[in-house]
Amino acid sequence: MRYADASLTSTQAAGQTATQAGSSSGENSSPSSSTPSSSSSVSSSLKDGTYSGTVVSTNRGDFQVDLTVSGGKVTNVKVLEYPQDPTSQSINEQAIPVYVKEALAAQSAQIQLVSGATETFNGFTGSLQDAINQAQGSK
């Protein structure tokens, strides 16, 4: 694993489209126990600050997300860690920008799965939900 800056601001994310996600093969689509157990789209209860979600392990590797809240809203989502093997890297380059855009729009971890990127989804949303819980004071 290596740390990588895969962040998008809400302005940058607006330029991304879900059609860029495409359909990638080679990623294990088995369910992971790291999927978020709860989530909230009520951003008004979020405390301003930066929160690092827990590292979530998937069959492909570890994911960690950093969340920035300003004015009670999620203003930035940055992926600190994600798998870098060739197959995962190809999938993540397509899926992560879509997941970041959707998380910013939804103000929550309840986002749509990109076909072929289940492990990325599980790691991203699991770590994101933990960061949201911290911002809500739930942790």
Automatic annotation (TrEMBL):
Signal peptide: none
InterPro entries: FMN-bd
A molecular-function term among this protein's GO annotations: FMN binding
Domain FMN-binding, first and last residues per copy: 58-135
Region of interest: Disordered: 1-57
Gene3D superfamilies on file: 3.90.1010.20
GO cellular-component term (any): membrane
Annotated Low complexity bias: 9-45
One Pfam family named in its UniProt record: FMN_bind
UniProt name for this protein: FMN-binding domain protein
Source taxonomy: Bacteria, Bacillati, Actinomycetota, Actinomycetes, Bifidobacteriales
